[in-house]
Design a protein that fits this description.
The chain is of the alpha/beta class. Helices cover 27% and strands 24% of the residues. The protein has helices at residues 44-51, 105-108, 157-163, 166-177, 192-203, 216-224, 239-248, 267-274, 297-302, 316-329, 348-356; strands at residues 5-10, 19-24, 33-42, 67-74, 91-94, 97-98, 120-121, 139-142, 148-150, 184-188, 208-213, 229-232, 255-260, 275-283, 307-310, 339-343, 362-365. The relative contact order is 0.15. The protein binds zinc ion (2 copies).
Length: 370
């Protein structure tokens, strides 16, 4: 079923209506492949993209950076990270980054490949002029060097996209925090990144996880996913009361680890108030520049003996290990239940509006009729 043309959603610029266009079907470059898209996620990043809140976005783009598809065509051998051949028809996802050069100061000296200036991300910094490099399309072009991951046994598209980009991001944040057995972990933010951080904190041996967020439906999800207690920021509106809520549950000391996954700059000083002396704080939610926040360097950092860490993007390793953990723990944590709605390509605008209004936790685009 190799049609000559396929449908794709184009985001042509900030706040411009999405356009459904018919484009030539992609053919794989040598070393590359083409997927038939099964589903692609709609996430907060897509909302930011549509508002023009990310710099360096080469509009028009085809949104959808985390996707699942079936291998439709290859041009040369395609193998997984173990070197095993990936046959046609295999259900796969892929690490959504390409272009990292392995040859610049960031790649070679700092060994920080997520800061390589040539790095591009499917659905975000991939111009549509370079091909079908986003999941809101019936086909996805896998460029040479892009790492494809067959879905681990027992997982399907709904599981993987229920995790979405929050899965490896939350995994990375918890790894960065160095959560230890017996820790109390506070997660600020109950979106996909926060919920995945809550899951991986438990899998890392946290004694308990407390989630501070909104709206109520997301906090209910946090409870189902094992949070011992949740605090609704719409009900408790004063930052000092929220920090007090954490201290009441931690012997007056504060949490061992706080993960900021809220996207609100004001969460930063508030999270430091929730942290115990000598604790670790990871900021992963400030993906766009939402403004400044004021802290007290003496009280919040120096005297507190705090460790404060940023967490930008994720590497292939995080995706690979997070998927393996999902396959192992999918009975206990029902990622697929985070998916509330699925839309065809023609309804991508509605899907985006739902995500913006926080009406769902996860929304999927299903570009091909199943
Ligand atoms: Zn580089
Ligand atoms: Zn995303």
């Amino acid at each position: 079923m190799k049609n000559d043309s396929v449908d794709a959603v184009f985001m042509t610029g900030p706040r411009r209506p999405l356009e459904l266009r018919r484009v030539p079907a992609p053919r794989p470059k040598p070393g590359g492949a083409v997927l038939e898209t099964v589903a692609s996620e709609v996430c907060g990043t897509d909302v930011h993209l549509h508002h023009g809140r990310l710099s360096g976005v080469p509009y028009p783009i085809i949104p959808g950076h985390v996707s699942v598809g079936r291998v439709l065509e290859t041009n040369g051998p395609l193998a997984d990270v173990e070197g095993r051949a990936i046959p046609l028809g295999t259900l796969v996802t892929f690490y959504d980054v390409y272009g990292t050069c392995g040859n610049c100061w960031h790649c070679l000296v700092a060994r920080s490949p997520t800061r390589c200036p040539r790095r591009r991300v499917y659905g975000i910094t991939a111009p549509a002029s370079d091909g079908l490099l986003g999941g809101w399309a019936q086909r996805i072009e896998i460029l040479p060097g892009v790492k494809v991951v067959p879905l681990p046994e027992g997982l399907d598209a709904l599981d993987v996209l229920g995790g979405g980009c929050g899965l490896p991001t939350g995994f990375h944040a918890i790894e960065r925090a160095g959560v230890a057995m017996g820790d109390t972990v506070v997660v600020q933010g109950s979106g996909p990144v926060g919920l995945n951080a809550a899951i991986f904190a438990q899998l890392s041996g946290a004694l308990r996880v407390l989630v501070v967020g909104a709206p109520a439906a997301r906090l209910d999800a946090a409870r189902r996913l094992g949070a011992e207690d949740v605090l609704d920021i719409a009900a408790v509106t004063r930052a000092e009361d929220r920090a007090g809520w954490v201290r009441e549950r931690t012997g007056g000391r504060g949490a061992d680890v706080v993960i900021e996954a809220s996207g609100n700059p004001a969460a930063f000083p508030e999270g430091l108030e929730m942290l115990r002396d000598g604790g670790r704080y990871v900021v992963v939610g400030q993906y766009t520049d939402a403004g400044d926040a004021t802290i007290n360097p003496h009280r919040h950092v120096n005297r507190k003996h705090a460790t404060i860490l940023g967490c930008w993007g994720y590497e292939f390793s995080h995706l690979h290990r997070a998927l393996a953990m999902m396959a192992r723990h999918n009975g206990r944590f029902r990622w697929r239940e985070l998916v509330a709605r699925e839309h065809p390509l023609a309804e991508a605008g509605q899907a985006l509006a739902d995500m913006e209004a926080l009406r769902t936790i996860k929304t999927l685009i299903r570009p091909n009729p199943s």
